[in-house]
Each structure stands twice: as C-alpha cells, then as structure tokens.
Amino acid sequence: MKYYGYIRVSTKEQNEDRQVDALKAYEIPQKNVFMDKQSGKDFERPAYQQLICKLKKGDVLIIKSIDRLGRNYDEIIEQWRVITKQVDADIVVIDMPLLDTRVGKDLTGKFVADLVLQILSYVAQTEREAIRQRQAEGIAAAKARGVKFGRPRIPLPSDFHVVSELYRRQMITSRESARMLSVSQDTFLRWNKTYS
Questions:
Q1: What are phi and psi of 100, to 5 degrees?
Q2: Which residues in 10-130 belong to E strands, given as ranges?
Q3: Which of 40-54, 58-72, 94-108 is predicted most confidently?
Q4: What angle do CA 163, 168, 173 make, to 5 degrees?
Q5: Residue ranges per domain, the chain?
Q6: Closest of 131, 18, 24 to residue 65, by C-alpha
Q7: Element housing 194 (H / E)
Q8: Whole-angstrom Cα distance, residue 114 to residue 77?
Q9: E strands of 38-193, at which residues?
C-alpha cells in the first residue's frame, strides 16, 4: 500500500501552499505527490494522468478537497468511480472526513461515502454555475453603464497611411512598417487590412 497526493491549482499564478500544507500531515513521499497547474475542465492534465497510471489496488490517494478531481458533477463522479472501483484504491478528502473510503469498508460505509460524494459534487457544480451567472450579470450591467473591457485601442498614427502605402508597394516589410509606427507587427497588419 502506497500513499499518493494530488494537488491542482487552476493557473500558474495561483498558490498551491494551502494544499501542500494539508498533505504534510500524511507524510507522503515527495515523489508520490503530483501537481498540475492548469484548469480542471478536463482530465488531460499530465500529472493527474501519471498519478492514475501509478495507483494500484490498496493504494491511498489524498486530496485537499473534492473539486481537485474535476470541475463538474459528472467528471468528479467518474473519477471517483475509476479510482475506487476500477483501480480499487482508496480516497481521502481532507476537507470532508466522511469521504474517506478506508473507513467503513462494508456496504453501508460505501453507500454513505458515495451518497455524500454525489451531494457534494452537485453542490460544487451548482456553486460554479451560480458564480458564472453572477459574473455574466455583472459584466452585462457594467457594459450597460458604458464600462469598456479589454485593453484600450491604440489610436491610428497620423503617418499610418504613408507607411501603409510603402508597405503595399513592397518598399518596406511589415516588420519595418510596425517599427516605424512603434506598434507590433500584428497591430500594423490588422490596421493595414482594416484601414487600407
């Protein structure tokens, strides 16, 4: 029996310390701790895939919270099934002691763990959907008030048409054109397509 840990943060900028600290209590060897720094929207995460390949019957996977497995109800339930039924490993969810498949190995224990899992997965998904809805409403309200999103547009330089004409006549390259206007090459090409 081996102990494994899995950590996931949604972006490279997010800090994983909270999850790392939570796993320390289980004294998992560092080589058995897998971490992905990317969205949980699918299971094409490299460290997670390596972990699943290493897990064997009787091993124990420790995670901080159930949403580390995935971002929606169906994915969490499916990964739980793969790990506990297909691989026949145990899962310990630190934030939810009821989700410890090492305890209550009888039919009632499995039933309780599966039931709690389904309820928590449902709650996690509905909360994510509510957050998305609130974000969409906030963005719509801001746009209605005239708030602009994204970077401000760079004003078209007064000498754009002269430089653009030189570019069209193949007297200078797009890179040289962009340098002359102090913008990126992509910006120059976009302007050239729009305003020429």
A1: -130, 100
A2: 33-37, 60-63, 90-93
A3: 58-72
A4: 70
A5: 3-127, 160-195
A6: 18
A7: helix 185-195
A8: 9
A9: 60-63, 90-93
Residue 43 pLDDT class (50, 70, 90 cuts): low
Q: Pick from 59, 68, 7: which is nearest to 33 by CA?
A: 7
> What tens digit of pLDDT does each residue of 156-183 get?
999 999 999 999 999 999 999 999 999 9
In this structure, CATH architecture of domain 3-127? 3-Layer(aba) Sandwich (3.40)
Q: What is the tens place of the pLDDT at every residue in 87-114?
A: 999 999 999 887 888 887 766 767 777 7
Report the side by side order of strands in the sheet with 33-37: 33-37, 3-9, 60-63, 90-93
Task: Tokens 């050239």: give the residue.
Answer: 192
Per DSSP, 33 falls in state E
Let me know: does 103 contact 109? Beta carbons within 8 Å. Answer: yes
- What is the value of pTM for the model shown? 0.61
d(CA 193, CA 182): 18
Catalytic residues: 10
